[in-house]
Structure formats: C-alpha cells, structure tokens
Amino acid sequence: MTEPELIDLLEQSFVRCRSLEAPLAERLQAFANDLRRLVPHFEAAVDSLVARLAQSNAGATAPKVGEPMPAFLLPDEQGRLVRLEDFLRDGPVALAFNRGHWCPYCRINIEALARAQDEVAAEHRRIAAIVPDRQRFAMWLKSDAKAPFPVLTDMDNGYATALGLTTYVGGDLKQLMVSAGFDPSVSQGTDNWMLPIPATFIVGTDGIVRARFVDPDFRMRMAIGDLLTALRSAS
Questions:
Q1: Per DSSP, what are the bridge partners of residue 75?
Q2: What is the pTM of this model?
Q3: Among 21, 126, 128, 179, which is least packed by CB within 10 angstroms?
C-alpha cells in the first residue's frame, strides 16, 4: 500500500469513527482498531511508547484535585489573549489539552466536546481546548469540529511543560507518524517533536482543580459524562 493510499484509508476511518452515534470511548477505540488493522507496526510502536510513558509516570506531577490550576495567558484562534481568570468569571471551566489539529483522536475528542457545549453553556459552565498549534491551525481545528468554544494556542508547549504534560515522541514513531500523514512539526512550526499528554482539568471559580483526567495513552480521553458531572458539581 502506498503512503497516499494509507492516508486516504485513515481519513475514511476517521470520518466513520467520528460520526458514530456512540460514547466517545467507543469512537476512539474504533479508530484505534482500524489503525491497528491497517498499520499494525504503527500501533505496536504506540503501545511501546505508552508503556514507556506509564513506566516513567508521565503526567503524574500535573495539578491534582484540590490543588490550584496555574494561571495562563494564551492566544485563542483569533489571536486574542485569554487568561484563566477570564473563563472563571463566568463559572467553572473544563480545560482540555490536545495534541494538535493533525491528531485524529483529538479531532474526535473536540467534536465530542462540541456536541456537549449546549448542555455546558446552559448551566453556565465553559469549555476551552488547548493545543500547541499555531493560530491558523487552531482556527482550522475549531472550524473542523464546529466547536463554539475557544481553541487556545500553547506555543512551544510552554504551559503544558510547566504542568508536567509534555513528552518526546521518539525517532521510530516519528517516522511512522509522518508516513501516516501525522506531522506536528508543520502546525507547531518546530521540529522538536514534543507533544502534550492529553488531559482534562475541571477548574472551579476559585481556581482549584475539582476533577482531572491525565493519561499518557493519547487514545484515551475523559468521558463526556464524567466531564459534565464534574462541571455540574463544581462551583
């Protein structure tokens, strides 16, 4: 199979999995299953990376429940600078770290968050996504997911690194990712191949973390039901 043929098949799989009327975890797993079937050596490399990250307790030092969420000042997809306290004036917020516009799992995750936005907004809660992509790619991701919430740009993974949420991809997986059409160096504008660990933090109006989901396995994300429950219980 040629690289263009593989990329086309993966995009078809992504479209199918994202459109499934199923819980987020099932849609993510469906894409992972397709990737394992189409490119088994790719998923084997991912399994190896995830095992290494788990062994090193990657993400363990990120803010925990009961701890303050560190402040940030990040541009949104329009280039407007946004602070954490700007969100918290209106109510609790869910901050969702994603790897970038190129990542199918992140696109599925953000589209699922977009589906939940009406329910979130009706209860005076908010969602914000954070990616290491430059502005035009953050704007594309927002448009692609039809997300009504902001997509913030964390250039050079500065905020994610401060939270202990960045990892190095590694040479073997890097080449496999490029062959499959996944190249974060384009949207990040750097070739360091550092990516954030996908994570979601529910932050109360007092700036304290009320719930969190941190998993070095980027195929896993916080369940939408858990996110909604945590947002409802936060104040």
A1: 81
A2: 0.96
A3: 21
Dihedral sign from CA coordinates of 17, 23, 24, 26:
negative
Alpha-carbon separation of residue 98 from 133, 157, 232 (angstroms): 10, 11, 23
Burial string for 162-194 (b: 16+ CB within 10 Å, else e) reads ebbbbbebeeebbebbeebebbbebbbeeeebb
Q: Which of 103, 80, 127 is nearest to 188 (CA)?
A: 103
- Express each pLDDT in 173-200 by its tens digit: 998 999 889 999 999 999 999 999 999 9
Instruction: Choose among 84, 27, 29: nearest CA to 202.
Output: 84
**Roughly what angle, to the nearest 10 degrees, separates helices 40-55 and 171-179?**
140
Q: Which of 90, 80, 84 is nearest to 138 (CA)?
A: 80
Q: Which helix (H) or strand (E) holds 26?
A: helix 24-38
| Contacts of residue 178, Cβ cutoff 8 Å, sequence gap at least 6 | none
How far apart (Å, rounded) are the C-alpha atoms in residues 160 and 162? 5
Compute the distance between CA of residue 145 and CA of residue 98 in angstroms, rounded to an integer. Answer: 13
Rounded-to-integer distance, Cα 110 and Cα 145, Å: 6
| Widest pairwise Cα distance in the chain | 53
Give the whole-angstrom CA distance, residue 128 versus residue 113: 9
3-state secondary structure of 20: coil
